[in-house]
Specification:
GO terms for molecular function: ATP binding; dihydrofolate synthase activity; metal ion binding; tetrahydrofolylpolyglutamate synthase activity. By secondary structure, the protein is α/β, with parallel strands linked by helices. The protein folds into two domains: 3-286, UDP-N-acetylmuramoyl-L-alanine:D-glutamate ligase; 294-430, Mur ligase, C-terminal domain (Protein-Tyrosine Phosphatase, Chain A, Alpha-Beta Complex). It is built from 16 helices and 17 strands. The protein has helices at 3-12, 24-32, 52-65, 99-113, 120-133, 172-175, 179-186, 203-215, 256-267, 277-286, 300-304, 319-335, 352-356, 380-389, 400-405, 421-430; strands at 43-47, 70-73, 85-88, 94-96, 139-143, 161-164, 196-198, 220-222, 227-232, 235-240, 243-248, 294-295, 310-313, 340-344, 365-368, 394-396, 414-418. Helix 13 (352-356) links the parallel strand 14 (340-344) and strand 15.
């Protein structure tokens, strides 16, 4: 076991609750560390229910294509913790934080915290800020962990810009049981006088965001009003008050990625450096974000499936994600029809029936599986019952490999492995694919 893993295990014991939203503990440890959050590169802070990571991935690709350097902070990780902290290097690219530097920063935070209660996400976010503060970069792309208003990342007084990606129902036990309450938590990242880019939202969420921005005199740039992104003749066309960009379609699959790319492009005018259209075009073709409609064409997972199966991996896990994934599968079906199967595992905190409902009429069968080593994973029998309640034929398997091996072999299938980022991480470990 790596040294950082041992330290993370110790730190996880400092607070009995994994999620306890508050900024008090964060301010305390940052002060003890000498306030590294005040020594960061310009920050773009990203909140929302779905699309946060993809939007960050587009901004990173654009920044690097423009010859600039970007640090990136995202969560959760898929295979190993290091994925959460990506450091810009002098060559204009980036790499995951090294083991020695991560372990040293975690130990430094552990000493500064001196045994006081603090959640694992708070203390690791403090460690990330410490690391970022010690490496020069042109930008820090900072993804919210949960919510926004009381999230550990929300200690940046003056970001360069904020982004709110599409909001939907998720984490209701922490953020509230209405779209308005959840939107209010997400809008908590808006800062006085700082531009906020808003992706397409439910009307109720957009109204909450608009009121929050008005209170803080924060200019809004809203999808469908101030900027537009769409597909025309197989190209991504982006337009705002500054003009029009005619771009390649994003490398990431699904029409929802057009909106994510649009939100990233709408942010460019608020960055501390200029980006030309050529850099944006390059980024659309180079962007990478694992476990978001990721094709699995070779490796142990492909080997376990019937010959010529078309296998995809996505970590989407809420009803809104189910909608965009069903739309992405429908788009694939239009191009090349095949019988469609889901292999799915989920956490018990998720709305499983709501996730499965959009697939009714599209998917031939759902095969439910456990997520190894995750206590909060649905029992596959219970998850299959939820899929059946959503109108889908469902059965269980003991593992992803067993589920794939059990699929019919008389015609080439299309398979989406989905329902949880933890399941996606498990699949990538089987593939021996570690994000770099």
């Amino acid at each position: 076991m790596a040294a950082s893993d041992l330290i993370l295990d110790r730190l996880a014991a400092l607070h009995p609750r994994k999620i306890d939203l508050s900024l008090d503990r964060m301010h305390r440890i940052l002060a003890a560390l000498g306030n590294p959050e005040r020594r960061l590169p310009p920050v773009v802070h990203v909140a929302g229910t779905n699309g946060k990571g993809s939007t960050v991935a587009y901004l990173r690709a654009i920044t690097e294509a423009a010859g600039r350097r970007a640090h990136v902070y995202t969560s959760p990780h898929l295979v190993r913790f290091h994925e959460r902290i990506r450091l810009a290097d002098e060559n204009g690219t980036s790499k995951l934080v090294g083991e020695a530097e991560l372990a040293a920063a975690l130990e430094e935070c552990e000493r500064a915290n001196a045994g006081a209660p603090i959640t694992i996400f708070e203390i690791t976010t403090a460690a990330a800020f410490l690391i970022f503060s010690r490496h020069p970069a042109d930008l820090l792309l900072l993804e919210v962990g949960l919510g926004g208003r009381l999230d550990a990342t929300n200690v940046i007084d003056r970001p360069a810009a904020t982004i709110i990606t599409p909001i939907s129902m998720d984490h209701a036990q922490y953020l509230g049981d209405t779209i308005e309450l959840i939107a209010a938590e997400k809008a908590g990242i808006i800062k006085r006088g700082v531009a906020c880019i808003v992706a397409r939202q439910p009307r109720a969420a957009e109204q909450v965001i608009a009121r929050a921005a008005a209170r803080l005199a924060a200019p809004l740039s809203i999808s469908g009003q101030d900027w537009h992104a769409g597909e025309e003749r197989g190209r991504l066309v982006y337009q705002d008050e500054h003009g029009l960009m005619d771009l390649p379609m994003p490398r990431l699959l699904g029409r929802h990625q057009i909106e994510n790319a649009g939100a990233a492009i709408a942010t460019l005018g608020h960055l501390p450096f200029a980006v030309d259209e050529a850099a944006v075009a390059t980024a659309m073709q180079t962007v990478d974000w694992p476990a978001r409609m990721q094709p699995l064409r070779v490796g142990p997972i492909a080997d376990a499936a019937p010959a010529n199966a078309d296998i995809w991996l996505d970590g989407g896990h809420n009803p809104a994600a189910g909608e965009v994934l069903a739309a992405a599968l429908a788009e694939l079906e239009e191009r090349n029809p095949r019988p469609v199967y889901l292999v799915s595992g989920m956490l018990t905190s998720k709305d499983a029936s709501g996730f499965f409902t959009p697939f009714a009429g599209l998917v031939r069968e759902v095969v439910t599986v456990p997520i190894p080593d995750v206590e909060a994973s649905f029992d596959p029998v219970e998850l299959a019952a939820d899929a059946a309640r959503a109108g889908l034929s469902a059965r269980v398997a003991a593992s992803v490999e067993e589920a794939l091996a059990s699929l019919p072999r008389d015609e080439p299938a299309r398979v989406l492995i989905c329902g949880s980022l933890y399941l996606a991480g498990h699949v990538l470990r089987i593939q021996e694919t570690v994000p770099q």
